[in-house]
Write a structure and sequence with these properties.
192 residues; alpha+beta; 8-stranded mixed β-sheet; 3-stranded antiparallel β-sheet; 4 helices
Length: 192
């Protein structure tokens, strides 16, 4: 799947991603399926596309996220969900995305089992934020996103249970929670 026009760093990422087995999914207590697209823009120096959710949203307002959401009954697969949501949120045409695989699902704090879908997007695609859902769209260099040392652990104790979340920053953007966990898991999968 490595056409000769991919930059060497992106070709290496694709190879490592597809040759490594994803981490096994942990037992999930969440039954509501959801999916997100991990959009990788195929610039000479590849980037990761992220959004900042609208401040007016009921849940996760203002947080950095991937385009995504809950699975609709007619979706049929996490890939269909991720592509549909990416089109709704940031106008990425599904036909512009070359899906290379998916990570094992992760549980969200809001009761969803979220499947991250990794997709490559040509650099010429224009993004348009759906203002009802997305306040900002930005790109982060892929090599920076995949640097494990940029994710700081924080142990949270709530309701008699302890769990770990990860925190990171990119320029003025604060990346944490499920988004940071997904990027960190991707970084772990492709690290050699």
């Amino acid at each position: 799947m490595n056409p000769p026009n991919y930059p060497a760093s992106l070709a290496a990422f694709i190879s490592r991603f597809q040759l490594q087995l994803p981490q096994a999914a942990q037992m999930s207590f969440n039954v509501r399926p959801a999916a997100v697209l991990i959009p990788i823009i195929c610039h000479p120096e590849p980037t990761l596309l992220l959004t900042r959710r609208a401040d007016s949203l009921r849940k996760h307002a203002g947080q950095v996220a991937f385009p995504g959401g809950k699975t609709d009954a007619e979706d049929g697969s996490p890939i269909v969900t991720a592509l549909r949501e990416a089109q709704e949120e940031v106008a990425i045409p599904p036909q512009a995305v070359s899906v290379i695989g998916q990570l094992a699902p992760l549980d969200s704090s809001t009761g969803f089992q979220v499947t991250p879908v990794v997709g490559l997007i040509p650099p010429g695609v224009q993004f348009h934020a759906n203002e009802a859902e997305v306040a900002d769209v930005f790109e982060m260099p892929l090599h920076e996103a995949l640097t494990l040392s940029r994710y700081y652990p924080l142990d949270i104790h709530r309701g008699g249970h302890s769990h770990r979340i990860y925190l990171s920053w990119y320029q003025s953007q604060f990346i944490w929670g499920l988004t940071a966990a997904i990027i960190r898991r991707l970084a772990q999968q492709v690290s050699i």
